[in-house]
Every structure is written in structure tokens, then in C-alpha cells.
């Protein structure tokens, strides 16, 4: 990690984890995955990171300053104070340097000796350094003492929710990860602290308020409790300049590390979902709505935008009694291996449908609220949702037709009661009871895979 000194404007590059994050870093990282109360009950010893630093969140504009540009310009001045005076009033001529100087001044006033800024603290000429930074960025934002979100397009504070900052992909993890975060307008006037601005942030991002830290709840990470579909829906509203970055910028949100392959296009998002699949049994990963760009789909979405309505999903892992008993997933050269319980029709006979052409409704281990007035499940406290009668199970439809592999059709996700059979072949008699049936394994593949 490379940090910038806030007064002499010189870099310090260190791979010394003890200097950067202190001896208790491992415990610290485990600690943020737990509720504060449970952490204290278990007796973890908290130690502040050794190198206290601030971090900047912003959208890129014109004349941003690279690592090379910064070093070249810094060598022209004999001291940090000369460098500061040269650019602290050059907002129009040198907006990139002006932004860096203003961020450093703010950090210095708040007793922060170091700051990390993505434009100048990463040498993007090095692909290995860029890869390391992207894979580590979530941790770096989490471990910063304070994060400054600079909204360059906000003049009037009541328009904060209209800022471009809320639409950029990289800014999502920068919103969620920091322990403490303050927002600033185009002239670096403070707008407010993240907890006090939750209403505006909810309006701008679609993230439910319960997943954002409340005022005064520093070092609180409630977003970690959200299911996969919820997290994907937050990203579905955003954009990045590079297609691949739609996947790379949310690696940290899902706790994933993977190589960066610029040029792979949409395959980056497919690789991300495969990595999630290897680590999680949260079936809300499959709770997305297709569109008509492809003839047929697999179980994994071709684009994160298809999760736009995923905010209304609740993972079955939070409702133990509802869990679907399914074999582990496995990606093969024939497609994603997927098992479902194929319901036996009334009378106990097996399928009368033609094996070469089938359409099956498959129940997932995720749910939506029943009542229309409370259709958004995020309005319910996920820790107090034990009543099965309040929820419907989410279903998808998979097809098998001549000349095609098993695939997901164009039907949107839909819901049935929790007593509905988990795998009903359309056209067959309605199964006698949900629990009866036979385990059926299929290999599901999309046109784009």
C-alpha cells in the first residue's frame, strides 16, 4: 500500500502489515464480520491500526493526476508547503492537483498524517500493482480511520442525492466499507456524516436503510447481512467506464479475490458468480429477471443489471426451517450441475411428459413477502422473520427442448406458497405433497456461457 503524507506530499510505500494495520490486524478483520455485541461478549481485544490514515472517495473528472504525474510535479518544489501553495487555489487550471491538496489539508486538520487517494497512490503502469490494489481496496477502505466523499457536482446540499457519485460502480464499496465517512460539496464544505444522511443515500442508491450504519454507529457493517441478490441490486443501478469493472468493483463486497483480465468483457461477471458459487450456498444468486437479448439463459446472470429488482429478496439461510436440501453446485463442461426435487404426481406414477421437452418450475431457497403492501422484504427486520406464513418462496422456470441444453427460459422469477412443490413439471398432475418426489440432476447452460 502506498500512502501520501498530508504535509510534505511525499509517498511512503510499505508492505509492512504491522506498520500499516498493527499487530491485531487479523483479529480486527475478524471482528468487523461480527455484531459489535457478540464480539465484545467473546472477549476480542481491539487494537487501533498502527498507521492511522484518511482515504478519499470521489468520481474521476478531467485532468486527474497519476502517480507518475504527481512525482514529476512534486520534484519541482523544494518543500511540501511550496507545493501546497502552488495548487491550493488552482481549482480551474489544475483540478486534479487542487483536489489532492484540499483532501490533504482536510486530513491534516483532522490530525491525519497519511492519506490514500486512488488516482495518485496507484502506479497504473504496473498491472500487478493495479490488480493488488483492486483486490485489496475493500480492506483499505475498511481500515481507514476516516473516509472523505468529495461530491464535485454538488453545490446545494439538498441536491446531494442527485450527485453522479451515487451512480458510479467503484463508489459502492467506498460507501459501505469505511468505519467513518463524511461528505463534502464542490468547494469542500461539509455536507454531513454518512449516518445523518441515510435518507438521502437511500433515495439515491436504493439500499435499504437498515443496511447502512446509523448515526454514531462507527465501525458498524450492517450491509454484510444482506443476501447476494440484495447486494447485486445495489450495483445494478450503477455504471463503470470499463465493462469488466462492473464485476471487479464489487469483489470486496462479496469477499472474493480473483485475477483481473481486462479485455474479457462480460465474462468477468460470469467468473465472479462462479467464485461466489464456490463459497456460498445463498440461492438468491439465481433470483434475477431475464430479458430478451438471448435465446436461452443459464442459472448465472449475463449482467448485473438483471438484479435490479433483487432488493425484494430474502435469503433462505436466514430461515433455517425453510432450507432446500440440494446437492452442492458444480460447473462442468456441460453446464452448471443443478439438482431439484421433482414432485411425484397424484397417484404416485412417474412423469407422463415427453423427456425430450420439459418445463419445470423449480423452487429456490429464497423468499419474498406475501402481502402486497409490504412487497419489499427489506422493510422487515431479517432477524425477526421466523413466521413462515408471511413469505412466499421464489421460483424460476427451466426448460429442456430438442436441440437445446437444459436452460432457464425468459420467465421472470415468480412466487408460490412454501407448501408448493419444489420441482413441478408443467403439464403433469399436481404433486400429492411437497415432500415426495425424486432427486433429479440436470446440467443448465446459457447461450452466453
UniProtKB/TrEMBL annotation:
<protein>
    <submittedName>
        <fullName>Vegetative incompatibility protein HET-E-1</fullName>
    </submittedName>
</protein>
<dbReference type="InterPro" id="IPR010730">
    <property type="entry name" value="HET"/>
</dbReference>
<dbReference type="Pfam" id="PF06985">
    <property type="entry name" value="HET"/>
</dbReference>
<feature type="domain" description="DUF8212">
    <location>
        <begin position="267"/>
        <end position="291"/>
    </location>
</feature>
<dbReference type="Pfam" id="PF26640">
    <property type="entry name" value="DUF8212"/>
</dbReference>
<dbReference type="InterPro" id="IPR058525">
    <property type="entry name" value="DUF8212"/>
</dbReference>
<feature type="domain" description="Heterokaryon incompatibility">
    <location>
        <begin position="53"/>
        <end position="153"/>
    </location>
</feature>
Amino acid at each position: 500500500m502506498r500512502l501520501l503524507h498530508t504535509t510534505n506530499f511525499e509517498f511512503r510505500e510499505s508492505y509492512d502489515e504491522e506498520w500499516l494495520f498493527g499487530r491485531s490486524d487479523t483479529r480486527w478483520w475478524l471482528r468487523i464480520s461480527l455484531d459489535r455485541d457478540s464480539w465484545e461478549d467473546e472477549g476480542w481485544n481491539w487494537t487501533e491500526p498502527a498507521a492511522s490514515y484518511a482515504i478519499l472517495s470521489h468520481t474521476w473528472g478531467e485532468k486527474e493526476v497519476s502517480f507518475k504525474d504527481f512525482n514529476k510535479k512534486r520534484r519541482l518544489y523544494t518543500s511540501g508547503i511550496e507545493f501546497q501553495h502552488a495548487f491550493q487555489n488552482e481549482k480551474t487550471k489544475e483540478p486534479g492537483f487542487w483536489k489532492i491538496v484540499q483532501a490533504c489539508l482536510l486530513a491534516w486538520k483532522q490530525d491525519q498524517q497519511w492519506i490514500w487517494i486512488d488516482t495518485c497512490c496507484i502506479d497504473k503502469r504496473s498491472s500487478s500493482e493495479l490488480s493488488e490494489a483492486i483486490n485489496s481496496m475493500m480492506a483499505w477502505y475498511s481500515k481507514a480511520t476516516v473516509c472523505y466523499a468529495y461530491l464535485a457536482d454538488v453545490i446545494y446540499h439538498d441536491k446531494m442525492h442527485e450527485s453522479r457519485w451515487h451512480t458510479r460502480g467503484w463508489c459502492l464499496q467506498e460507501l459501505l466499507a469505511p468505519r467513518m465517512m463524511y461528505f463534502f460539496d464542490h468547494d469542500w464544505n461539509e455536507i454531513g456524516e454518512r449516518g445523518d444522511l441515510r435518507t438521502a443515500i437511500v433515495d439515491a442508491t436504493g439500499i435499504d436503510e437498515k443496511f447502512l450504519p446509523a448515526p454514531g454507529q462507527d465501525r458498524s457493517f450492517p450491509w454484510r447481512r444482506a443476501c447476494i441478490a440484495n447486494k447485486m441490486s445495489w450495483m445494478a443501478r450503477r455504471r463503470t467506464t470499463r465493462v469488466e469493472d462492473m464485476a471487479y468493483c464489487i469483489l470486496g463486497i462479496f469477499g472474493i479475490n480473483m485475477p483481473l483480465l481486462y479485455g474479457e468483457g462480460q465474462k468477468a461477471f460470469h467468473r465472479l458468480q462462479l467464485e461466489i458459487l464456490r463459497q456460498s450456498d445463498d440461492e438468491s444468486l439465481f433470483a434475477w429477471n431475464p430479458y430478451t437479448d438471448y435465446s436461452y439463459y443459464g442459472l448465472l446472470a449475463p449482467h448485473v443489471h438483471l438484479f435490479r429488482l433483487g432488493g425484494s429478496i430474502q435469503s433462505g439461510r436466514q430461515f433455517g426451517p425453510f432450507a432446500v436440501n440440494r446437492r452442492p453446485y458444480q460447473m462442468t463442461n456441460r453446464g452448471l450441475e443443478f439438482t431439484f426435487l421433482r414432485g411425484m404426481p397424484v397417484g404416485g406414477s412417474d412423469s407422463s411428459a415427453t423427456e425430450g421437452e420439459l418445463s419445470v418450475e423449480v423452487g429456490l431457497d429464497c423468499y419474498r413477502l406475501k402481502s402486497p403492501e409490504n412487497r419489499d422484504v427489506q422493510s422487515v427486520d431479517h432477524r425477526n422473520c421466523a413466521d413462515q406464513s408471511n413469505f412466499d418462496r421464489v421460483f424460476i422456470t427451466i426448460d429442456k427442448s430438442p436441440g437445446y441444453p437444459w436452460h432457464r427460459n425468459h420467465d421472470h422469477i415468480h412466487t408460490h406458497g412454501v407448501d408448493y412443490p419444489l420441482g413441478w413439471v408443467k403439464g403433469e398432475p399436481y404433486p400429492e405433497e411437497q415432500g415426495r418426489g425424486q432427486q433429479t440432476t440436470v446440467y443448465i447452460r446459457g447461450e452466453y456461457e
